[in-house]
Amino acid sequence: MLQSLLLNCLLVLNHVDGTFIPANELNHVTGTFIPTNGLGTAVVRGSQPLETSQAKWLGLRTIDWVDEAGRERKWEVAYRKTAGGESSSTGKPDSVAILAKVLRPHRPPEIILVHQFRPPVNKIVVELPAGLVDKDESVEKAALRELLEETGYGQPPHGGTATVGHVSDMIVNDPGMSEAKMVMVNVAISLNDPDAVPVPRQEPGPILISINHLIVT
C-alpha cells in the first residue's frame, strides 16, 4: 500500500511532457521544499556511439531463443558488466532500491528520497535511494550500505538504527531492452532525537517526505 502511495507521489513530480517540476513548485505537491543544491547547473553537452569493448559498465549480447511458434529468433540485450554478465543466469538482482521510513518522537513517519542529475534523460530525477549489489553481497547488506552512503541514515547515533523489513520479489525495469533486475528493500530507521540530521557521504543528500503528504483523504 505504501509503495503504491509513494509511486503516485513520484509520478506527479513530473509533468506529462517529461519535464521536471522546479523545486519551488514541488512544495505544492509534497509539502516539502526540495532544493536543487547546484544540480540545476548540470547539463549534457553531447553523446557519441560507444563500442561494447570500450564500455566500462554496460555490455551488449545476442540471445538465441525459440518463440511460441517454434521459430528460432535472436534478441539484442544490454547487461551490467558489474554483475559479471551472470545476472540473467543466476537470477540474482544486480541492484536494490530502498523504501526507508524514518521514525522519531513527536513527528509523523517520513519517507527518504534522493535527487540527482541523470545524464541519460538530461533531467534532475527524484527517486528512492538505490545502488548496485556487490559480488557476494546480500541485498539486505547492499540496501543498508547504499542508504548510509546516499543519505547518512542507518548509523547510530545521529543516523539512527536501521532495521531491514520486507524484501520484494524481483523487479524488471525494462525487460524489452535489458536483463537488469532489482528488488525493493523496506527499511525502518529509528531515531531518538526528533531533530537529528545525519550527514550523508554523498551530495546532495536526502529529501524527507511526510507520509501524511502521500495520503489523499
Automatic annotation (TrEMBL):
Q: Point out the signal peptide segment.
A: 1-18
Signal listed as a keyword? yes
GO cellular component, as recorded: nucleus
Residue ranges of domain Nudix hydrolase in the record: 93-217
Q: One GO molecular-function annotation for this sequence?
A: ADP-ribose diphosphatase activity
Q: Name one Pfam family in it.
A: NUDIX
- List GO BP terms, alphabetically: nucleoside phosphate metabolic process; ribose phosphate metabolic process
Q: What's in the keyword line of the UniProt record?
A: Hydrolase, Signal
Q: Give the source's domain of life in one word.
A: Eukaryota
The protein's name is: Nudix hydrolase domain-containing protein
Q: Which organism is it from?
A: Puccinia sorghi
